[in-house]
Amino acid sequence: MKSNLPKILIIYEFFDPAYKAGGIIQSLRNMIKLLQNDYEFHVITGAFDLNELQPLDGIKVNEWNKMQIADNTSVNIWYDDKKRLDLIKMKKLINSVAPDIIYINGFMHITFLFNPLMVIKYSDLCFKKIVVAPRGMLQDGAVATKSAKKKWYIKLIQLMGLTKNIYWHITSINELEGIKHYFPHSAARYTLAGNIPQKPIKQIVASIKQAGKLSLVYASIITEKKNLYYLLEALQFAKSEIHLSIYGVIKESAYWNQCNLLIQQLPKNIQATYKGDYQPQQIQSIISEHDALVLLSKGENFSHAIFESLGAGRPVISSHFTSWNNLAIESAGWNFTIDNLAETAESLDQLTAMNNTDWMPYCNGAHQLAKQYLTKQDFKNDYKQLFG
User: Fold this and answer.
1) What is the C-alpha to C-alpha distance for residues 359 and 384, in angstroms, rounded to an integer?
2) Integer Cα distance of 10 and 99 in angstroms
3) What is the pLDDT of residues 277-297, one digit of tens each?
């Protein structure tokens, strides 16, 4: 039976059952669940999870799949092997859906952003709305990594006028500065609609923080932007006993090799161990086994990892380049500068000295901040405004 609902075509390199690429997949899945009675969704994505050579289990490659991504939630998904997903093929796929709205996620990808925008620019189809969600990729810290290549790519998009008629989806107000800087002519056309995360746990696991010891967990993709190397550098100067568990997919192997070399040179009072990747449903449990999450990122538009830590009742140690910049005020964690290794090490030593009586209010504050975030959101209306 043909649906009379407006069609939204989502374009992103990774989608369910892929999970290694991070929180965008979770946000998209939760958005579809929320709006499935209001829109008919289709997805064009890759057939592989991040860094994988074999296609995802349970899919048919290079054809449309009817996939159940949650209870009572099914989506039409095209999983492409990406070998020949050029302009001609992208045009055929978009035309086969004939969507009312196209929703492109991410920014620094030829196949999944530049090619769709080129097809749209020269298409005979009439679209109600073209929405691009840069997902933090236009923030200063994100552009600064591999900056020459990224700035050339952005310049090409500017010269081609590919953002002339688009609307922007931002998930935090911090993203707007990058859009204003690179695409001022379209920067006024934006909607702020927050990422839809996993709900906080109902009852947090009690903290067992010991004075003189600090158990930290890093849980994110391992890339230069996430700034793990800086954290490891700072730990070289720390005088306290600190244990760091590192979870996440290694996206940039050369960067990880640098981190791994530094791990082997850490002093005896510091232990850092790589634990591999994790399934999204495991993250709250993993974080609960530690005193705090640490993510000194150079740029985040939201960060599901930070929210998962707050939702698990564990404070967060972060940079100032996220949308969670008042952690200390909320008694939910601490925001560090990331340009002074000695100062970062000293701050970590101060946190290590805290006992469980000092620490538990930050666990409660973190959990409260996560609940407050969800209470303040009106996701359904925000996303309907985005696509309206």
Assistant:
1) 40
2) 10
3) 999 889 999 999 999 999 999
Residue 223 is classified by DSSP as S
**pLDDT above 80 for 265:** yes
What gap in Å lies between CA 137 and CA 113, rounded to an integer?
Answer: 12
Could you tell me which of 126, 83, 86, 131 has the C-alpha nearest to residue 107?
Answer: 131
Please give the C-alpha separations between residue 227 and each of 217, 221, 224, 286, 342, in angstroms, as whole numbers.
Answer: 14, 10, 5, 20, 16
Q: Is the pLDDT of residue 1 over 60?
A: no
Question: Rounded distance, CA 235 to CA 227, Å?
Answer: 13
- In three-state secondary structure terms, 64 is strand
Which stretches does DSSP call E strand in 152-306?
Answer: 167-170, 190-192, 213-219, 241-247, 270-276, 292-295
User: b vs e for 175-196, b when ≥16 Cβ sit within 10 Å of the residue's Cβ?
Assistant: bbebbeebbeebbeebbebbbb
To the nearest whole percent, how much of the chain has pLDDT over 70? 99
Helix locations, the chain, DSSP H: 23-35, 87-97, 115-121, 140-144, 147-160, 175-182, 228-235, 253-263, 283-288, 304-311, 341-353, 356-376, 379-387
pLDDT tens figures, 115-139: 999 999 999 888 999 999 999 889 8
For residue 16, pLDDT over 90 is answered with yes
Q: Cα torsion at 170, 327, 309, 280 (round to 10°)?
A: 10
CA distance 248 to 242: 19
- pLDDT tens by residue, 328-340: 999 999 999 999 9
Domains for the chain: give ranges and CATH numbers.
Answer: 7-196 (3.40.50.2000), 213-374 (3.40.50.2000)
Closest CA to 366 of 322, 317, 338, 330: 330
Give the whole-angstrom CA distance, residue 299 versus residue 24.
15
- pTM of the predicted model, to two decimals? 0.89
State how far the alpha carbon of 236 is from the alpha carbons of 233, 256, 291, 345, 348, in Å: 5, 17, 20, 8, 11
Compute how many other C-beta atoms are within 10 angstroms of the C-beta atom of residue 46. 24
What is the rounded distance in angstroms from the CA atom of residue 284 to the CA atom of residue 310? Answer: 9
